[in-house]
Amino acid sequence: MEQTALVLISIMNLLLVIILGVLGFLIYRLFQQKLPTQKQPETTADPNYHPDIMIRMKEMEKLKPKRSDLFCPNHPDEPGETTCAICDRLFCKACIRPFKTLHFCKEHLPLIMKNDWEEVFTLKTSTHDPEEGVRLYDAKKRLFEDKNIPTYVETHYKINVDQDYIETYLVVYSIPENTEIVRENLQ
């Protein structure tokens, strides 16, 4: 009787191991089949972002950066790490230089150092319309690409300690002779 019970327990343990093995294999196959075909979550359904940002994220999903845009234009084998504050292109560590709080490529660093720059436009950013800052950077980039007018943007912060609040300002700087053109294009 004892031997029969031991045999039955051994058979049940063996069946349990086989069932768990088959179940584990099926779960593995299920996950293996689903992973490549899983879709990214829809960005438009996320209520945590402003609707304008959601539209921009949707547009960005359609764009794939060209390989050349991700690497330094002077050293095609080196990945771009930092953007120039004037031309917005990515450069490797060897081709970019810090100046004050920004970085400039070797081509535009002399431009920054030799010229006087004046504040042209200030934008107070807000959490209600964060897309406004993106539009400012896009307009700055178009000015350089279309009209070859150099500008740069500094971010300034104002800390209100009493109300525990930080205000953020984007300040656009231009060479004095381009000030009016820059103002017209940024309005």
From TrEMBL:
Superkingdom per UniProt: Bacteria
Keywords: Membrane, Transmembrane, Transmembrane helix
TM annotation in the entry: 6-31
Name by which UniProt lists this protein: B box-type domain-containing protein
Organism: Peredibacter starrii
